[in-house]
Write a structure and sequence with these properties.
It is found in: Nucleus. The model has no long low-confidence stretch (mean pLDDT 81). Helices cover 49% and strands 18% of the residues. It has one helix at residues 21-53; strands at 7-12, 15-20.
C-alpha cells in the first residue's frame, strides 16, 4: 500500500496519466541540467558573435568550448 503514495495523477495532452513521483523528479532535474547547459552555450555563442563583429584580431580567437 505504501507504493501508492509515490504515484500522482497529471493531465498530459488530452488525458489523465499516473506518474511515479521519483521518475518525474528525476526527469525535471535532468531537464533543468540540460536547460542550464543550453543557456551557457547560448551565452558563449553571443560572446563569440560580439567578438567577431568587432573585427579586432585579438577578439577573433575562440573564448571557450561548448559544453556537451
Amino acid at each position: 500500500m505504501s507504493n501508492y503514495w509515490n504515484i500522482i495523477l497529471i493531465f498530459v495532452g488530452k488525458k489523465w496519466s499516473f506518474v511515479n513521483v521519483q521518475e518525474l523528479q528525476s526527469f525535471q532535474k535532468s531537464f533543468v541540467n540540460v536547460q542550464d547547459i543550453l543557456d551557457q552555450n547560448r551565452l558563449l555563442i553571443d560572446e563569440i558573435n560580439l567578438n567577431h563583429e568587432s573585427n579586432q584580431p585579438e577578439n577573433l580567437q575562440s573564448k571557450g568550448k561548448f559544453i556537451t
